[in-house]
Amino acid sequence: MAIWVVRLLNLLSLSVAVYIIVLTLERCRSEKRYGFIYSIVFLFFYTLGYFMEMTTGDMGGGIIAIKVMYIGACFMSPFFFFFVADYCEIRLPKKYYKIPLLVIPILLYLVVASFDYHSLFYTNYFFNAAEPLRGVEIETGPLYLVGALYPLFCVGLSCLVLVRSLIKQTRERRFGLLLLLISSLAPVAANSAYVVLSYFSTPLSGINLTAFVMIISNFILYYNVVRNDMFDLAPKAYSITMDLIRDAFVVLDRGTAYTGSNRKALELFPALKELHKGASIRGLEYWPEELAAGMGEEEKILVQREVEFTLPHRPGKFFSAWINRVASESGTVTLGWVILIQDTTETVNLIKNIQAQRDEIAAMRDSLKEGLFFMDREHRIQSGYSRALEDVLSGKNLRGRSFTGILRKSFNAKDITTIGDYFTMIMDKTVEPEMLDDMNPLQEFAYTSTDTGAKKTLRAFFTPVERGTGEVLTMVTLQDITAEAALKKQLVEEEARR
Question: CA–CA separation, 3 vs 21, rounded Å?
């Protein structure tokens, strides 16, 4: 009965390992998952080899089972260290520890794979079918301890990194690291006890509990991935921060694979709740075509762009999205996309109202028969002047032109200087407005156009206007009083004649 329980546990452990691999590939998008998957793959081989050994009936099957088991035994511990080093983000460059730690298990497995042709690993071995847990019993060779101590060395390195991270990390993340530490220490302790207690017996005998503890480690890893959400421990603060953002936030992997989003995005696109990580965002209900366009791997130059769109299930609403391309350090490979979506309905409506008001003001301004414009401290005419100004000054394209320059044919150089000083007093507000009106040198003047040479009589009024930025402009009103001046002159001449 006990043997069937052990076999059932092994089968269950194998199933859990496969489930963890599939689950991690489908739902975990973190780059750190690859080292973890490799570790589980080799753990699967170790458990599979042990299951084959206890179910085989002859020496040939036992030899095959040992070679399968040692695939996991040789490579599981270094790959587990690679995962831990990446997960805990040690600063040592990967090439400095990956290459040395992989050379030894490769050479070791070459020795194990050919152990039936030499005595380096086993000096003697035979198949024991009498025991309930039948298998190959061996007499150890000179390299046997290397195979036993090397995994202990790699797991020891992993434990050092995990303990260091446990000290530095917050309480929430420590639980996941502690589970990793337990899952790595337990099989090492069992294997060490087996080697120490049974190494000096010939042949090597005793019950090796390593495989059974591996089953426990497998279930711990299952809990860490599925229940404890191991690969999302680091981004928890990031996800909470995203939920605090008032705008919708969506992160896509390469190929527009959905990686994550905040609560606002789930409110905007309810179908995201049913979309698992790794699925393409293009098939999402109501996902705008404007966001799907231009997000292929070939988009290597575009870094950021803005897209405006509407949604059929949100009538009357307007949205704007910033699409940011996340590239590799070289900039040649697209790693993913970050999309920030804002509800711009209020802004769009405000702009429409402002544009309507501007159109009304422009219509009123253009209906004026007087020239109206703003002038800065350099006496330049600003944009937005009234349409009648060009008729009054008999000129075209007045934006940016100097008003004193336009008057140079109407006054001599000394008068132009006096007019410029008057404009300065208006903007500096150093003189009372009533006095400025009395001092106005352009209250009525003879004007000669610098463009056409036309002669007119004009009247000008000046009012300082302060903008919100603190800049002071002068609003100028110009009236063409040529007919009025001619009528006055005619009346004066008629009065003199009388």
Answer: 27
- Give residues with Cβ within 8 angstroms of 361, minimum separation 6: none
Residue pLDDT, tens place only, 376-389: 989 999 887 888 88
Model pLDDT, residue 231: 59
Count the Cβ atoms, other than its own, within 10 Å of residue 62: 23
pTM exceeding the 0.90 threshold for the entire prediction: no
- Rounded Cα distance between 84 and 81, Å, is 5
269 vs 284: CA distance, rounded Å: 8
Cα–Cα distances (Å) from 434 to 69, 422, 437, 444, 445, in that order, read 103, 14, 5, 17, 20
Residue length of the chain: 498
Residue of 40, 66, 42, 54 whose CA lies nearest to 10: 54
Q: Which two tokens stand for residue 450?
A: 């610098």
Question: Which pLDDT tens digit goes with each residue over 70-85?
Answer: 898 889 889 888 888 8
If we measure between CA atoms, which residue out of 12, 59, 20, 64 comes closest to residue 42?
A: 20
Helices 95-113, 59-87: crossing angle, 10 deg rounding: 180
Rg (CA), the chain: 42
Single-letter residue type at 456: K
Contact 83, 39 (CB under 8 A): yes
Q: Is the Cβ–Cβ distance between 337 and 303 less than 8 Å?
A: no
